[in-house]
Structures are given as C-alpha cells and as structure tokens.
Design goal:
Elements lengths: L2 H15 L10 E3 L8 E3 L2 H7 L4 H11 L6 E7 L3 E6 L1 H13 L12 E5 L12 H18 L3 E5 L7 H12 L10 H17 L1 H15 L3 H24 L19 H10 L3 E4 L2 E10 L5 E7 L7 H15 L4 E4 L6 H13 L8 E4 L5 E2 L16 H19 L5 H22 L6 E2 L2 H4 L7 H18 L15 H11 L1 H11 L3 H20 L8 H24 L9
Helix pairs in contact: 1-3, 2-3, 4-17, 4-20, 6-7, 6-8, 7-8, 11-12, 13-14, 16-19, 16-20, 17-19, 17-20, 19-20
This protein binds arginine (ARG).
C-alpha cells in the first residue's frame, strides 16, 4: 500500500475522532525538506477553522490520536498548524527488500476496468506528421501504464478514413483514369489528394460528382468501396512502419476508424429526431445546445446531417460514444486529442448525454495537449511552411545520436552503433515529448532533446548504464546474499523514500494523465543517484554490509528506471 494513502487514512480517522466530517481532506504532501519530515499535512488549519477550534491545539490533538502503527516513527506539530510525519527506517528497509525481489516492484494493481483509449488517429491519404506525435506517444504511454495497473485496455486508432474527401479522391482517380491504385506510393497519393482538393474547391460540377461518389460509398457500391479500401491501405502500411520504429503498441487490429461507424449513423439521426434533440433547419439537421453559445451569443447549433443527407465528423463521434458505451460496455474512455478539439468534443459529449447514450458507469475524459512550436514560437513546420513528416524527424534524430555516440567512442562496432543510435534517437524524441506538461505548447529544440545533462533521456540512460556497470563489477549475486538493506545516512534515506514513492507517481498518472510527472521523477532519482555516487563509496566501501546494502539500493534504482522508461514506451540499453 502507498505510504501516502496510509497516512491519509490514519489522519482522517483521527480527524473524525476530533469532530471532523468523514470527507475532510488533510492534504498530505511529500515534504521538500527531508530533515524536517517525510510527509506533511497542510489541511489541518482549514478544518480547525471550520470546526471553530484553536488550530494549534486541534493539530496537537489530531497528532496525538494518529496511530503510528509499524510505519511511522514520529509525529510532530509545527507552526502555525502543520502535522509532520516521520517514517520508520525499519519499515522502509523491509519494504525495499520486498521491492527488490518483486518483478513489478510491489506496485499493486487497481480495480480492473474496461478502458478505451482513443489515440494517434491520423487521417488517411496523408503522411503522419509532427502534429500526430503527441497523441501517439502520450496515448501509448498511457496504454502501457493502465495495462500495467491491471486494466483491460482497448486501444482504438480512430483514423480519419471516411467522409467527403474520399468521394473527392475517388472521383478524381476515376476522372484521370488512374490505374493500379494499390501500387501508388503515399507521396503520390498525397499529391493526388492536393490536386483533387483544389478541383473540389474550384469546380461545382466536380463537387457534385464527389458527393455522388460518397453516397455510392455509403450504399456499399463494390467498385467504390474497393478503390476506397486501396487508398486507406496505402496510408496504413506507411503508418505501420512508423509505429514499429517508434515502438508504439498500435497494431492493425486496433484500427477502428470513422468508417467503422458508417452504418450506425442513420439510426442515430432517427433516434435524435425521435427524442426531439435534433431539429431540421435549412435542410440541415441540427442539435441546439443551451450550454454553449455561438458567435452571436445564442444557443450553439451542432450540425449532424448535411442537406445532401451525408453525415459529419460529429455524427460519427456520437455513434462512436454510443458504441463504446452500449456495445463495448467500457467503464472509461480516454481521448488524446489536440486542445483545439476541446469544445467540439464537449459538444459531442453533451449531445450523447442528452440522448442517454452514456451509461452510468462510464466516465469520459479528454486529455488535451498543446502545439509543438519552432524556435520562433510558431507551429513547427518546414522552412517552406509545410508540416514536418514524422519519418524525416525520426531519421534525423537517429543520425544525430550516432554522432554523439561516435564522439565518445569512435572505435565502436558498426552494428552496435546502428542499434544504439536507433534506441537513443527514438528514446530522446519520445522522452522530450513526454517530459513536457501535455497541456502546454513546447518548442522543439534538437540541442535540448539530445543534451547529455538535464532532464533528458540520455542523462537518465547514463545513470542507468553506470549502475549497471557498478553492479556487474561488484560480482555480487543478489539472490544468494543474506545481508539486508540498511539505511546509514540522510542521502540513503532520501533515495529510499523516493523509491517508495514510485507507486504514488504511477497512481497519480493513472488518474490525471500527466506522464511528465514520471519523467521528472526518473530524472530526480537519477540525479539523487549521481550525487550519492559522488559523495559515498559503493564498490570501494570497506564495510561489507554497507557495500552490499548500497549495491542493492542502486539496483532498485536501475530497476525503477527500466520499468519507468518502459512504461513510457522507451527502451533502455546497458551501455551507451
Ligand atoms: N483524425 C482526427 C485528426 O487528425 C483525430 C481523431 C480523434 N478521435 C476522435 N474520436 N475524434 O484531427
């Protein structure tokens, strides 16, 4: 069990004894000053005021009634009204031993839930670009974390594979009599897409034909569907390569794009009409939402069907929510979509709620993210103002990493060089992305991504490989050693408590979806190790018991780094 949780439980019990309500929050936080205490309660003042009691006296009474059990050594009260908790070193040492021999480092599974994670979701007939980086990398890290915590995770790659642009593409392909579509390269397809779009915007006749083509697709016309499938496959096989290179767990079986819902849309429309949620206006079917205002300050109207009876992105998302709720019976949907779709998604959710498509035991969250910027704080693009292709970015990172490795060791075996530079190049990009608070925009900066110190993948990887080599040199067989971990100084205590907090960190991320918290944690743990290594002997420590204890301790650190990075979808190597 997480220490923090234990402290909260005990404190609340004492608070209730002292007259507080059941749902009070003692606000337990990790103390920044370890000499003063390990944890601190900051919420006592507020509760005392509410109960009209003298704060300091109240805090003292609460502290007195807290059961220290086996895990607390000391509880003190400090001005004006804080309760300080000191954890028992014996408890910490025992816990560390358990963590060391446990594969999942004693991290408990949560109550199993069925969770749909909607992420990556690129559009078809286009190369995946840097804009898809965030959803893909953050979403995949969350998939790994939720699975690690024992949930039944359903990955859904909600690709943009349906809608008027396919009617447009097919019409263009037919008109230009383009043959052998399955042999077309994605680059050519992108070109065809651009040309057909231009034509679509210019020619009314072409627009009309495109709409007819889309209707044929809706009617499942064999020829049209076959061309459409080929177009989709060209993009998918290219995306598959990117997922594989980036070590993303998305496979073909996780694709459940917009087209999957196409046959459900008619019923959705009928149902929304029947329930008097949608109204016809100027030939369009619209849902008016009181909660949202349009530019004129009036009720916002969301279109769910066009005059020509075709459906929209929103109609599909409504059908999708209903499907995930009623058919998949999910307990949770986690969306990883750009912040610009925040309002859109809120509206879609509101409509689904009105239509009673969301079951009681289903919670839905949008974990939005900001934009990747260039050094001039503009959206990250090529010099010509084009989007940067993900593949080019990956290649560049691998090339730069190769240079870094060669600078350190130019005699390295070429095969090993290739393997390591790939792991580092990809790890560095993924780590940089994940180390940023997802809600904020960030500047893409090669120098920072591949820095050897600071909160980067390479820095953490260095700490990891250093520990690896120390443990190897020690020639100690952990399984055969009887000596236990002993905490002999403040630094060891600090590192040990940090180790115990790993579970809290993972738990926190599972609730709020901020993977950068794990990056910060791994970075701090690595710096703690480096500082410790500078100050104390490990291999050359004369006291054998202390030496073994220290090796065990750093071994746990390396295990945490490995598991932590793997949960983020990042590989580790024994040597840089
Ligand atoms: N295809 C969309 C885009 O590239 C993202 C889809 C996100 N998921 C969803 N259920 N709407 O912008």
């Amino acid at each position: 069990m997480k220490i923090k949780e234990k402290i909260i439980k005990e404190t609340i019990r004492s608070l209730i004894l002292n007259g507080s309500e059941k749902n009070c929050d003692p606000i337990i936080i990790k103390s920044s000053n370890k000499q003063k205490s390990d944890y601190q309660s900051n919420g006592i003042m507020k509760i005392a005021i509410k109960l009209k009691k003298n704060p300091k006296k109240f805090a003292k009474n609460v502290a007195k009634n807290i059961n220290k059990k086996n895990f607390l050594k000391k509880i003190t009260v400090s001005d004006p009204c804080f309760i300080n908790f000191f954890i028992n070193s014996k408890f910490i040492e025992k816990r560390l031993e358990n963590i060391l021999i446990c594969k999942r480092l004693k991290i408990k599974k949560q109550n199993k839930k069925k969770i749909v994670i909607d992420y990556s979701s690129p559009n078809i007939a286009k190369n995946m670009h840097v804009g898809h980086l965030r959803s893909t990398i953050i979403g995949d890290a969350m998939v790994r974390i939720m699975e690690f915590l024992g949930h039944n995770v359903i990955r859904e790659n909600h690709i943009g594979d349906w809608g008027h642009q396919y009617g447009m593409l097919i019409t263009y392909i037919k008109e230009k009599n383009i043959k052998n579509i399955s042999k077309i390269k994605l680059k050519e397809l992108e070109d065809i897409y651009k040309k057909s779009k231009r034509k679509f915007n210019r020619s009314k006749d072409f627009k009309k034909k495109s709409k007819k083509s889309l209707i044929k697709m809706y009617k499942n016309n064999k020829k049209y569907i076959s061309v459409w499938k080929k177009i989709v496959n060209i993009t998918l096989s290219e995306n598959k390569k990117i997922y594989k290179t980036l070590n993303i767990t998305l496979k073909s079986k996780h694709i459940k794009g917009e087209s999957f819902y196409r046959n459900m849309l008619k019923n959705i429309i009928l149902d929304l009409k029947k329930k008097k949620i949608a109204r016809k206006k100027n030939g369009k079917l619209i849902v008016y939402l009181k909660k949202f205002k349009n530019k004129l300050g009036k009720k916002m109207g969301v279109i769910i069907q066009n005059e020509d009876k075709t459906f929209l992105y929103s109609t599909i998302d409504i059908a999708c929510i209903k499907h995930r709720s009623k058919i998949i019976k999910a307990n949770k949907i986690m969306y990883y979509i750009d912040y610009r779709q925040k309002r859109y998604l809120e509206q879609v959710l509101e409509i689904s709620k009105k239509a009673k498509y969301i079951s009681k035991n289903l919670s839905i969250n949008h974990y939005e993210f900001g934009t990747i910027l260039n050094k001039k704080n503009k959206p990250f693009m090529t010099r010509k103002g084009k989007t940067i292709k993900l593949y080019d970015l990956i290649k560049k990172s691998i090339k730069k990493s190769k240079k870094i490795i060669l600078e350190k060791n130019n005699k390295i075996n070429r095969k090993i060089l290739k393997k390591r530079s790939k792991i580092i190049g990809i790890g560095a990009i993924k780590y940089f992305e994940l180390s940023k608070n997802r809600k904020k925009n960030y500047v893409f900066n090669w120098k920072k991504i591949l820095k050897l110190d600071g909160n980067t993948y390479i820095y953490i990887q260095y700490a990891y490989s250093r520990i690896f080599s120390i443990v190897k040199k020690s020639k100690i067989n952990i399984k055969k050693i009887k000596d236990k971990i002993i905490i002999t100084n403040l630094e060891e205590r600090k590192i040990s408590i940090k180790i115990l907090q790993f579970e809290e960190i993972i738990d926190d991320i599972s609730k709020n979806s901020y993977p950068h918290i794990l990056c910060n944690y791994l970075y701090n743990l690595s710096t703690n190790f480096s500082k410790f290594y500078e100050k104390y002997y490990i291999l050359s420590e004369k006291d054998k018991k202390i030496k073994i204890s220290r090796i065990k301790l750093i071994l746990i650190i390396s295990k945490i780094i490995k598991i932590g990075l793997n949960l983020l979808g990042i590989k580790t190597i024994k040597k840089i």
